[in-house]
Amino acid sequence: MIITFQTDASETQARAAASEAERSGLKAYVRFSGGRWAVAIVGAGRVRPGGADRLNERLAALPGVASITADQQAFVLASRAFVPETTSFSLSDTPDGVRVGGSRLLLIAGPCSVEDRSQLLETALAVKEAGAHALRGGAFKPRTSPYSFQGLGEAGLEMLAEARQLTGLPIVTEVMTPEDLPLVARYADVLQIGARNMQNSPLLHAAGASQKPVLLKRGMSATLEEMLFAAEYILSHDNFRVMVCERGIRTFENSLTRNTTDINAVPVLKSISHLPVMLDPSHSTGSWEYVTAIARAAVAAGADGLIVEVHPHPEQALSDGAQSLKPERFAELVRQVSGIANWMERTV
Ligand code: PEP
Ligand code: MN
User: Would you call 182 exposed, middle or buried from its count of C-beta atoms within 10 A (0-12, 13-18, 19+)?
Assistant: First the structure.
């Protein structure tokens, strides 16, 4: 249920509605966006059908209330109905840090996996030079085969921290289990939740509770609605620093590309949700040749940023070499994307 308030209503009036709902055993979230207060009320699943009717009446009678919409099936906290303006946030704990969700695109780049110190530092310096705003690199890798490189674990996180020290770039790195989360959160600026874990609810709860920014990737066979429900788990901890990421989905087309970029995802997500929308053209194509074209398409479609795999020697990469750009190709991607961004009245 979403209660919106008249534009001249006060925060106190919104909080009074939240308290009224909480007295009925529900949970309420209060946000100011689009020039008005709104209260989202969730947890109706615990209330028997019809049991909240009296609450609806009490809420409708409160001063300042403009409208009440009840749709028990829909995601609520992630919706634009609740928060009309795109959520913009800093990736670090200082408000002047690198941001996502504003007019400036967020460019995250780096290797698929942290392989060794020199590979990571060389890549970090190169992507920074090319214009990236944040560094990616996996230390805990969710691989299809148990015999593939699984990542360096904490040693990889230490290398990421050194790369941040060297370049000033915030770090985006994947966390695979709730148990690993405290360790990863000590090093990461942004927790990445990968496609294979998009519906791992204990991990989503732990990421929410951590209050760290989260990059949530779409499951390879997940609908957009399922992704927003996954985001809802994180938001339910009052952690609104969440960006969602299209990374390609499974379709019958797999002869020349690893996945199919669902470019529809960008405008659809932008329309129904306030969360910043990222696109990963590396995993969505699986081939470096197509990465730059799909990056351009993403920005033209309205994405808030890109996450791109870059490796100084892709042919030697321990994971995802085929889809990794060489640094000079990434620099060219940034140049091309800047042109599209200008045309979209955005910057990089
Ligand atoms: C990755 O970013 O390297 C990765 C494993 O991505 P995904 O979860 O989208 O497959
Ligand atoms: Mn990868």
Answer: exposed
CATH 3.20.20.70 in the chain is located at 89-343
CA of 286 to the centre of ligand 2 (A): 9
pTM for this one?
0.96
Q: Whose CA is nearest to atom 1 of ligand 1?
A: 112
CATH 3.40.50.2000 is held by the domain 89-343: no
DSSP 43-73: -GGGSPTTTTHHHHHHHHTSTTEEEEE--TT
Give 194 Cα–ligand 1 centroid separation in angstroms. 5
258 lines ligand 1 (CB under 6 A): no
Task: Note the CATH number of domain 2-69.
Answer: 3.30.70.1140
pLDDT tens by residue, 102-142: 999 999 999 999 999 999 999 999 999 999 999 999 999 99
Which among 60, 58, 22 has a CA at the least distance from the CA of 41?
22
